[in-house]
Write a structure and sequence with these properties.
The structure holds two protein chains of two kinds. Chain A is of the alpha+beta class. Helix content of chain A is 50%, strand content 16%. Chain A folds into two domains: 221 residues, 2-Layer Sandwich (Cytochrome Bc1 Complex, Chain A, domain 1), CATH 3.30.830.10; 204 residues, Cytochrome Bc1 Complex, Chain A, domain 1 (2-Layer Sandwich). Chain B is α+β, with helices and mostly antiparallel strands. Classes of the chains: A alpha+beta, B alpha+beta.
């Protein structure tokens, strides 16, 4: 080999290695195929398994009322007949041959499908995922069979009292475009859907440039990228679905609203919800939101001491769920019927105090950052689960958001937290849902009716 | 000639046995048995102190005392007042919690290596010097009572509670792990403190650590912390097997959109030959009821079969369904099929292959591996059994599965929560 050629090859190798290490963080390496499919490899050799996950930017946020719940129904149909596998029975048989476990989930802004198998099934597993993603048949009979299964899932949700609390609050918070937040969907829409509607969802959203392929576990980036290129490069790019099918912006909550949900429960649960930041528009607030949530979760915080250690609440949680199209800020508190009045008063006092400079210490602020960073470290121990987290961030905020997450958390200041609260919580309209037993409903309603005006004034001070 | 798939399976099993066998050591200090699995592949350390006996060491009046005691123990200690204890743990995000089940309890520490020293000091002080203040006792008691009551609000949790009560009548497991409002309300500070002193004997305890820790490092720590503890004289407790002579059904009337149903049958404990076979048999059954009930007939979203991990054990079929009669008939037909028709070699081979994936998924974290080692040790078969797991699984034959199905699947104890339009009780008498 001529000497100059050797240098060229070495130089090329250096370029490849540089580009890999440049994008590598937390064992994550990425590459985008020519068709727009983002391939993400999460290396972890602790057990000889690989998880293959396909993430698609689909979910309730893409659903107008006539599609309410169909992203979720589509997720069920993914595990059925395709051009290569003639039926769901054959589909399951193939999974067993591969030694694979599988599942899928649908949420507001992401649908994911994942299979985990021994490493020697890797190539066949990728082919299996490719066939499912690119050639579903949506057989009429399989669709008919699946409808009662999805409504069975619905029944199970409705059997849980918290499902009703969550729905009652969500319908009011997202009052104009509720279908865009209603993952489980509308029974009627599910029961009357057609294969054509499934096809429309596939054509719009199941294109490589709206998807990511994640490979996690006992695999190197080189192996992963080579196989992804070999198997997925034929998948045809489509138009960006969000150019044509815009996601409408949720209008603000018009007024403070209270809803009492009666179910046979022993405790009283309060759920306050505000409209929070969208990560694409206000990422700074999302970091502040997460840090604040982890300050308030600490046992040493005023929030926990005043509410839980005082005995007023059985548990409290104040959190923000990161989404790109308005994430909710939710305050949960659970108490006994006897302490309801005192507990809800105390909750408002806490909300009022949150913007005070002394509400939390510098140590608690730093602890929150440490907790968030260490939680990530704990999460990375489980490759088969961590891959879901990476896929979620890819879909909702972009992978860079996640890769720089810890760094940005460390920059959060008291001022950022104050701004976040003032922009989204203080003096802002919210919806309060109270879940209580029918026996205590009157007492709860009476308390709320009398004090509803005062509550509003209190927070507006 | 060995087939390609068998060869791959063999390679996987050899690999797996070697992965799980690596660096597991056991030693004893002052009567305390310690199992250490050194894992240098990450910086997370899981250290767990187990207390043997579970509900078998409790009277009915003591139901819930061990769980309550361990929860309160974590709140403050002699050398770490509450504020300091919380502040130090939060500054490191070292996590300490407790767990109680029917067979044993544990205090668990999860931390990163650089904080192990500081975290261990707190963890060991919780074990040695808990304060059990009156305020902490009352606060935690109220929370646990609220949780106990809330089990009734959730049909799935309630089903498990009732199924357990119906299965373990007149058995040590009939004593509730979490307790009842009556028992929990009765415990005084002295009760809790006396109970804990009696449990704090090294022969009652087992320490399992998985993570990047050396033997000498751990020996030093354990010796400093626990060398003065009483040894006591704990004797292994083997809870009796349950035998039901007749099938039964208990119906709990509740207005729900669907019905929650579980039928339980006596099953061998894990770690026995029958136990390994039952694991595979149950996995085959779970796939089959899924396919017959959900895929082919759309009768339910959630048909399943499971096999618990108690020392005195049961297996179960489970489903939520609007039409219980039709659904249960389909599920029982699958039980019959398991007993009467041998499963094919292909199905068995694929199932074992799939099971290996489940096995690894269940052992991904240091905490999960610690729990697995502890389970085998505490059940009496010894921690070494954890690394033999896949060898046992690989030897299972189709005939073994049929034998185990015939031996154990009978006299199902059904519980149904709901309000079905019709119910043929005879369909459940299996």
């Amino acid at each position: 080999m001529p000497k100059y050629l050797k240098y060229i090859l070495l130089f090329q190798l250096f370029i490849v290695l540089s580009s890999l290490s440049f994008s590598q963080k937390f064992g994550i390496t990425t590459q985008v195929l020519d068709n727009g499919l983002e391939v993400i490899v999460v290396e972890n050799h602790s057990v000889p398994l690989v998880t293959v996950e396909l993430d698609v930017k689909n979910g309730s946020y893409t659903e107008s009322p006539e599609y309410d719940g169909l992203s979720h129904l589509y997720e069920h149909m993914f595990f059925k007949a395709n051009a290569k596998i003639p039926s769901q029975e054959a589909y399951m048989e193939r999974l067993r041959e591969l030694g694979a476990t599988f599942n899928g989930t649908t949420s507001e802004e992401r649908v994911n499908y994942f299979i985990t198998f021994p490493k020697d099934s890797l190539e066949q597993g990728l082919v299996f995922m490719y066939d499912a993603a690119t050639s579903p048949l949506f057989l009429e009979q399989e669709l008919i069979n699946e409808r009662p299964v999805v409504t069975g899932e619905y029944d199970r949700g409705e059997a849980n009292p918290f499902f009703h609390l969550n729905r009652a609050v969500s319908e009011k918070v997202w009052w104009k475009y509720y279908s865009r937040k209603n993952v489980i969907g509308d029974r009627e829409v599910i029961l009357t859907t057609t294969p054509e509607k499934m096809q429309i969802i596939q054509n719009r959203f199941y294109v490589p440039n709206n998807s990511a392929l994640l490979l996690a576990g006992d695999i190197t980036p080189e192996e992963g990228f080579a196989l992804a290129e070999k198997i997925f490069s034929e998948w045809e790019r489509g138009p960006n679905p969000f150019d044509e099918y815009k996601v409408p912006e949720h209008p603000p909550i018009q007024e403070i609203e209270v809803v009492v949900v009666e179910k046979p429960v022993s405790a009283v649960t309060m759920m306050y919800e505000w409209q929070g930041p969208s990560v694409g528009k206000d990422p700074k607030s999302t970091y502040a939101a997460d840090v604040l949530s982890f300050i308030l979760g600490q046992q040493t915080s005023k929030f926990q001491k005043d509410l839980v250690e005082s005995g007023l609440a059985l548990g409290v949680n104040f959190g923000y769920y990161t989404l790109n199209h308005t994430g909710p800020i939710t305050l949960f508190a659970q108490t006994t019927p006897e302490k309801f009045d005192a507990c809800q008063k105390a909750l408002f006092e806490e909300l009022e105090k949150m913007t005070d400079p002394n509400y939390f210490t510098d140590e608690q602020l730093e602890n929150a950052k440490t907790i968030l960073a260490t939680n990530e470290q704990y999460a990375r121990e489980t490759a088969s689960q961590f891959v879901h987290t990476v896929g979620f961030w890819w879909a909702v905020a972009g992978l860079d958001y996640y890769l720089n997450y810890i760094e940005n958390l460390n920059k959060v200041t008291r001022e950022d937290i104050k701004n976040y609260l003032e922009t989204y919580v203080v003096n802002k309209n919210y919806v309060l849902g109270v879940l209580t037993s029918p026996e205590n409903a009157e007492k709860v309603s009476l308390t709320l009716n009398i004090k509803k005006g005062e509550l509003k004034n209190d927070i507006e001070k | 000639m060995i087939s390609k798939s068998k060869l791959l399976l063999l390679i996987l099993i050899i690999f797996c046995a070697s992965v799980f066998a690596q660096d597991i050591q056991s030693f004893e200090i002052n009567g305390l048995k310690i199992i250490l699995k050194q894992n240098t592949s990450n910086d997370i350390i899981s250290a767990n102190m187990f207390f043997k006996g579970g509900v078998s060491v409790l009277t009915e009046d003591q139901a819930g005392i061990e769980n309550l005691t361990l929860v309160v123990a974590q709140k403050a200690t002699k050398n770490y007042p509450k504020e300091q204890l919380n502040a130090e743990l939060e500054s490191m995000n070292s996590q300490i919690n407790s767990n109680s089940n029917q067979d044993y309890s544990s205090l668990n520490l999860l931390c990163v290596k650089q904080n192990f020293e500081k975290s261990w000091n707190i963890f060991s002080d919780i074990i040695l010097n808990p304060l059990f203040s009156e305020d902490d006792l009352n606060l935690e008691r109220d929370k646990i009572i609220a949780n106990v009551k809330q089990v009734n609000d959730n049909p799935d949790a309630y089903l498990q509670k009732i199924a357990n009560e119906e299965f373990y009548i007149d058995h040590p497991y009939s004593v509730s792990v979490n307790g009842t409002e009556t028992t929990l309300s009765s415990f005084t500070k002295k009760d809790v403190s006396d109970f804990y002193s009696q449990r704090l004997k090294t022969s009652n305890m087992l320490l399992v650590v998985v993570g990047n820790v050396t033997k000498s490092e751990l020996e030093k720590k354990v010796s400093e912390s626990f060398r003065k503890l009483d040894k006591g004289n704990f004797q292994q407790i083997v809870p009796p097997e349950v035998i039901h002579a007749e099938p039964s059904i208990k119906i709990v009337d509740r207005e729900l959109p669907t019905n929650y149903i579980q039928g339980t049958y006596s099953a061998p404990s894990r770690g026995t030959e029958d136990g390994y076979t039952m694991l595979i048999m149950n996995s085959v059954l779970r796939d089959r009821v899924w396919e017959e009930v959900r895929t082919k007939r759309s009768l339910s979203y959630a048909p399943s079969a499971f096999y618990r991990a108690n020392f005195s054990n049961y297996g179960a079929i489970y489903v939520s369904a609007v039409d219980p009669d039709t659904t249960i008939k389909v599920m029982i037909a699958e039980l019959e099929k398991l007993k009467n028709d041998p499963i094919s070699d292909v199905e068995l081979r694929n199932k074992i292959r799939q099971f290996i994936t489940f096995y690894y998924l269940g052992n991904e974290t240091n905490q999960a591996q610690a729990n697995s080692l502890a389970f085998y040790e505490l059940s009496g078969v010894g921690y070494n059994e954890a690394k033999n797991f896949l060898n046992h699984i690989n030897k299972i034959t189709s005939q073994d599965i049929q034998n185990v199905a015939q031996k154990y699947i009978k006299n199902l104890q059904f519980v149904l929560i709901g309000n079905p339009k019709s119910l043929e009780v005879s369909s459940f008498m299996y």
